[in-house]
From TrEMBL:
This is Alpha/beta hydrolase family protein. One of its GO terms (molecular function) is hydrolase activity. PANTHER family: DIACYLGLYCEROL ACYLTRANSFERASE_MYCOLYLTRANSFERASE AG85A (PTHR48098:SF1), ENTEROCHELIN ESTERASE-RELATED (PTHR48098). SUPFAM superfamilies: alpha/beta-Hydrolases. Pfam families: Esterase. Residues 1-21 form the signal peptide. Keywords: Hydrolase, Signal.
Amino acid sequence: MSVASAGVLLASTLVPTDAVAAPSSTVVSSTPTGPQSADVVVHSASMNRDIPLSVLMPKDRSKPAGVLYLLNGAGGGEDSASWQVKTDIASFFANKNVYVITPMQGAFTYYTDWEKPDEKLGVNKWSTFLGKELPQVVDATYNTNGKNSIAGISSSATSVLNLAIEHRGLYKSVAGYSGCASTSTDMGILYIRMVVESRGGADPENMWGPYEGAGWKKHDPILNASKLRGVSLYLSAATGLPGKYDTSAYVPDPSVLADQIAVGGSIEAATRVCTEMLASKLSDLRIPATVDRPAAGSHSWRYWEDQLHKSWPQLARSIGA
């Protein structure tokens, strides 16, 4: 079945024949970018807009394969800071039997359902799209085995935990690299405001309502950690101290290197505190989790690439890859 025909078939099955047809989530286009990759556009019914995706295909497409949803950070892949540009994911997954789906949109949204439209970022229903609409489209379009995993970095490391909590049973495993799961504390709110307000120019209260209100507590993975029971969990965060990639050998531009060490180091140190808070809560609840604690490293891509490699065997086992 072709991508286009699968999208049409899915649309026809989602709407009763005797009802007025509402916009459905379907494949709009699929453009091959290599023997195992494609740029795919899916229409989101909840947001009424087209969402671009980067898709990596399994090595062997004759057999059903699991799906890894891999989220970009604060920029949502709309800038040059993406898994596709900054890491080796194309070569890393080339010999593996898994579909890797990465949304290339969603900057500064935390990939969540916003309570109100935002003047800057518009309508955002990312939890609905990622947790309900997109998996149906992916399973109808590709030869999947129905098993999903999800991973994210930085702000999206919070998002993947919330997505697993909100859509229980959808993801067999979750990996969060350098995230801050404490969203309803003063520290967590400040961290989110730095992303959504300072960088994105949007109003964070349009996302989850008044600060420290019920919406922020509802989306705090530490407060809701019990709902992660049964999910294979992988968490990581370094100390923020300069590591092997925080050198001129890897970052030749002195100004970029200084920023990576100073700013990236400070951010990573903060995410380490958050990660330890979540790890402690999971331990109290007797919920197993793999927690990797590198002794050095900043908030930057080479470390996240390493973490994806380290976590992959655990993620792969959960989805039959």
